[in-house]
Amino acid sequence: MEPKDIFDRIDGSREDIIRDVSKLVSIPGIGPANDGTGESERADWIEGYLRDLDFFDSVERMDVQDEDVLRSNVIALKKGKKKGTVWLIAHMDTVHPGDPLLWNHPPFEAFVEGDKIYGLGSEDNGQGLIAALYSVRFIGDVELQGYSIGLAFVADEETGSNYGIIHLLDKGVFSKDDFILVPDWGSPNGEFIDISEKNILWLKITVEGIQVHGSTPDKGLNAYRIGARFLTDLVDGLYERYNDKDPIFRPTGSTFEPTRRSVTTDNINVIPGRDEFWMDCRILPGYDLEDIISYVKDVAEERSKRTGAKISVDVVQRLASGPSSSTGTYEYDSLKRSISEITGRTVKEAGIGGGTCANFFRKKGINAYAWSSEGDSLHKPNEYVLISNIMTDAKVFFRLFNELCINNH
Ligand SMILES: [Zn+2]
Question: What spacing in Å lies between the alpha carbon of 182 and ligand 1's midpoint?
Fold first, then answer.
């Protein structure tokens, strides 16, 4: 079949797409950390779907036990003549629906309105998942002259990816010859491809002083006052010291922002003896997180000595980012061309604040890119997906497979 015919068939799939999204939404895929039973039932449905397509050489399950719950991954592969695989990676798990009263329609029952299908997980990651299925659905019986085609439907993206992508990487499913596309991040009109992500560093700062009555500050040590000055000095110091800019990121530099703060005291007439605050730092790749942590600790130590308060620094979360994915390859150009051709837009590279599962690949030296048509309702009540976005993404993915896998360059 000619690409044009396949695009037409995708465009003509509205009713089928509605049926498939509705089925997906009806099967809960919530992980145990969010009080769910995992995504195995979804995996069963997807596995059956992939087998029915009769397109892949193999459809495999790679399940793994997570306490009492089975976490599921489904891997479908059609072999090409060339070494390496073009992969689409979509996650099957969803977040918890939250307060059911905030949903206008039940979260596990799809509701269609014009171009929108409402339901939990319909966009995240239903859009990428269903688009991946439709990208190969109409290809039919063909011998791949180029790379292999791989679809991986993975577990546990919402709570760390340990039983999903990380597990599959550990098992050697992917290689450095592969091209990875993760349709789990989007920008307006699909104009940007995520090629890089910032490091994430979350810190907790604790200041211990001495609590006393508000009228006798000289007898105590105001932890709030010391903490406030320490906070502004530290943040200024971090922004000054780590001030590199990279124009592909927005914002272009690293960010060091105080976010959460504990109540110091409930009483206006008490000088607080304890102050705690947290920081969310998004740091450009290229900076060493260890260096930043030791700078923060040095400043804390110096300030402790000067004030007599005890200031301690705890790392709550650190997620080092891998190197940016290459933009100088034929395969990357093919992705750009595929997006431009289907959307009619000029496509540019972007770095984001983090973090998609593309980063796990980058850390292993595998080029990975995150792209999809942007939706705007993920992790919100009344989540919905645009049918037109699923069609656009499916066409882009097919266009990519057609150039790199069905044909050879
Ligand atoms: Zn997602």
Answer: 9
